[in-house]
Amino acid sequence: MLKKILAAAAITAALVLGGSSAAMAQTYPAQVGCVANPATIVVGQTSVVTCTGLSPNATGTFTVTGPSGTVTTRTITTDAQGKATFSLVGPAAGNYTVSLVTSNGQSGSATVTVTAASAGAGGGSLPPTGTDVPAAAIWLGVGAIGIGGIAVAAAVARRRAASNR
User: What is the pTM of this model?
Assistant: First the structure.
């Protein structure tokens, strides 16, 4: 009878220990992290949502959900480092959730807040106009003005010298 109890205990121990090692061997999807940069934009500006920790070369779908429901979806393939990006141009004021779900079950999301453009009254900043001028162009202009000033001064001096004769 003791042999039967020991045999049953050995089989039970083998099942318990063997079952737990099989559960530990199972791989789970990696933790996905999605970040919006910048997280707050003005209507018409762009925010880039980057998701990392994905399986390399996996397919997935980005879905943008906004105040009025689903706005857009786009199918992507992650790069070799397990990264995927999505550019959201702010369509209208509100909070937008950009979520990614891959074919192997990995998922992540980030929120982008889109604000209305400032009306100009109330101390807001002015909208950007024109372009940035390179410093070299500015110094070229300053140099041309300086050379022009020297030429004018030389011409005036020459006329004075000629009139004094």
Answer: 0.54
